[in-house]
């Protein structure tokens, strides 16, 4: 069963793409869902409206993942409003492409701040609420398991960091009854990586199934890991990548 009735989830970057699909899926499973966004206030409101239409509570919080104060403020505000927090999904992320010599120091800082430091800070701030049955699901990338082509050094660095983060957190939080897992999406049709983009056919060629995934297919895996069926799963990497890393 994946029934999440009575649980509260926080999904970072829930206004669009994979995060929006995850927010809706967890609401479908019965959870009340808070989501963060950076700029897409209207889209975030639309996701909240859909959650509300399912009979669940939804809430959107503007919080730039690159800003540590915003991150800690978001967790506190959500825990305050919903009086609990059971599931944290670290989804918000930014892409980065370019040859190693073209990447600037500012780009390195920005990508690591959003993709690595923010998940760390979110987990840190959420920990006290998650103790005794909570779940953390991090969103990595198939590129963390197999860097199949050049141009992804910075992005791969940031997503590979989540492997150590997930395993270390699983070790540390296991005794507190919290599981921590990592989902690696493959090429997934979103604004970040459109299925009709310039490099879409190229990326498709690296998958075993020969197609892009959908945000809903990634959300299915998050739903599993957030649910009761995954109670003995922690420190795991789950590829939802059409065989990209196979
Ligand atoms: P999108 O670019 O489509 O959506 C990104 C989401 O994250 C939006 O909700 C956006 O909010 C939010 N976000 C981005 N930056 C910040 C920030 N600084 N602070 C707060 N929120 C932020 O991305 P995807 O849905 O494709 O990707 C989601 C996750 O999946 C990312 O971690 C990505 O790296 C990973 N992934 C994606 C793959 C793909 O092929 N699509 C493949 C492998 C991994 P707003 O709308 O306000 O900008």
CATH superfamily membership: NAD(P)-binding Rossmann-like Domain
H-E string = EHEHEHEHEHEHHE
The CATH architecture would be 3-Layer(aba) Sandwich
Number of strands: 7
Helix percentage range: 40-55%
Global geometry:
globular
How many separate helices? Answer: 7
The poorly predicted ranges are none
What does this structure look like?
The chain is α/β, with parallel strands linked by helices and 246 residues long. The protein has a single domain (8-240), classed as NAD(P)-binding Rossmann-like Domain (Rossmann fold), CATH 3.40.50.720. 42% of the residues lie in helices and 14% in strands. It contains seven helices and seven strands, in the order E-H-E-H-E-H-E-H-E-H-E-H-H-E. The protein has helices spanning 17-28, 41-53, 68-82, 105-130, 153-173, 200-204, 215-226, and strands spanning 8-11, 32-37, 58-62, 87-90, 135-139, 179-185, 237-240. It has a seven-stranded parallel beta sheet with strand order 3-2-1-4-5-6-7, sandwiched between helices. Strand 5 (135-139), helix 5 (153-173) and strand 6 form a beta-alpha-beta unit. Helix 3 runs parallel beside helix 4 (105-130). The mean pLDDT is 97. Bound molecules: NADPH dihydro-nicotinamide-adenine-dinucleotide phosphate (NDP). NADPH dihydro-nicotinamide-adenine-dinucleotide phosphate is lined by residues 13-19, 36-40, 43, 63-66, 91-94, 114, 139, 141, 185, 187-188, 190-193. It comes from Streptomyces zagrosensis. Belongs to the short-chain dehydrogenases/reductases (SDR) family. One of its GO terms (molecular function) is oxidoreductase activity. InterPro entries: NAD(P)-bd_dom_sf, SDR_fam. Pfam families: adh_short_C2 (PF13561).
């Amino acid at each position: 069963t994946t029934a999440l009735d009575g649980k509260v989830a926080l999904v970072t970057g829930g206004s669009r793409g994979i995060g929006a699909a995850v927010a809706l899926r967890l609401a479908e499973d019965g959870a009340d869902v808070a989501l963060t966004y950076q700029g897409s206030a209207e889209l975030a409101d639309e996701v909240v409206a859909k959650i509300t239409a399912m009979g669940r509570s939804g809430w959107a919080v503007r919080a730039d993942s690159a800003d540590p104060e915003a991150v800690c403020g978001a967790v506190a505000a959500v825990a305050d409003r919903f009086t609990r927090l059971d599931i944290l999904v670290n989804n918000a992320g930014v892409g980065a492409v370019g040859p190693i010599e073209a990447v600037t120091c500012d780009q390195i800082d920005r990508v690591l701040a959003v993709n690595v430091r923010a998940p760390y800070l979110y987990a840190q701030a959420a920990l006290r609420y998650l103790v005794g049955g909570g779940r953390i699901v991090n969103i990595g990338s198939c590129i963390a398991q197999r860097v199949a082509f050049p141009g992804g050094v910075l992005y791969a660095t940031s997503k590979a960091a989540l492997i150590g983060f997930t395993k270390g957190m699983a070790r540390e939080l296991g005794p507190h009854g919290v599981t921590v897992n990592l989902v690696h999406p493959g090429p997934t049709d979103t604004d970040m990586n459109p299925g009709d983009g310039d490099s879409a056919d190229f990326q498709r060629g690296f998958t075993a199934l020969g197609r892009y995934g959908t945000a809903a297919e990634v959300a299915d895996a998050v739903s599993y890991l957030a649910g009761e069926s995954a109670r003995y799963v922690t420190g795991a990497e789950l590829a939802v990548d059409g065989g990209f890393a196979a």
